[in-house]
Amino acid sequence: MGLFDKIKSTFASSNGTITPPAATFATRPDTVYAPISGVLVSLKEVNDEVISAGLLGDGYGILPTGAGVLYAPVSGRIGATTVTNHSIAIRTEEGMEVLIHIGIGTVNMGGKGFTRLVEANDEVRAGQPLMTFSVDAIKLAGYDEVVACVISNPDAYARIDHVGESGTLLGGRPLVKIGDPLLVARK
User: Fold this and answer.
1) pTM, whole model, 2 decimals?
2) Dihedral of the alpha carbons of 43, 49, 51, 55, in degrees to the nearest 10
């Protein structure tokens, strides 16, 4: 067995599915971290009436750059998954509910191009891979690839601070990497 095969076997399950390595970063229980690297956009700019109106919650949209691997933005329990694997919810021990929705209209893809790595009721740690998806498949199907990451129970907090900023800009917008702070929920 060569070096490449040893490395590959470290991240492959018994059925041959490749599991990306976990991301590691310091966390706080009141903070939501970037689940994917990309360009930050306001929810108001997301081309979906429900998301842009804030009906799913308060947060950001992220236009992915690089590999389509979605990481846990908080530590907690997987509350809900979808059959089509285009969204996932996590509830923290402190009661924060975080919803991540991949793409606009991607429910119509019927799960093609998406692979979920966790199931409902699984305990996850911030930085753990939750799902893989193909940005190219989303674009080829004619859908927007924006990833919405929101606190879906914002009424449980006095305020939610949007802290997603970085010194790196792309087209005048902040570029974030996995594990960068996005939202801080204040009681």
Assistant:
1) 0.87
2) 120
Amino acid at 75: S
Q: Which two tokens stand for residue 186?
A: 């204040």
d(CA 103, CA 32): 19
Nearest-angstrom CA–CA distance, 172 and 126: 28
Among residues 40, 81, 98, 101, the one annotated as catalytic is 101
> For residue 14, what pLDDT is reported?
44
Task: Kindly tell me the burial class for residue 65, based on how many C-beta atoms sit within 10 Å of its own C-beta (0-12, 13-18, 19 or more).
Answer: middle
Q: Which pLDDT tens digit goes with each residue over 128-138? A: 999 999 999 99
In the annotation, is 101 catalytic? yes
**How far, in Å, CA of 79 to CA of 156, rounded?**
17
In eight-state DSSP terms, residue 73 is: S
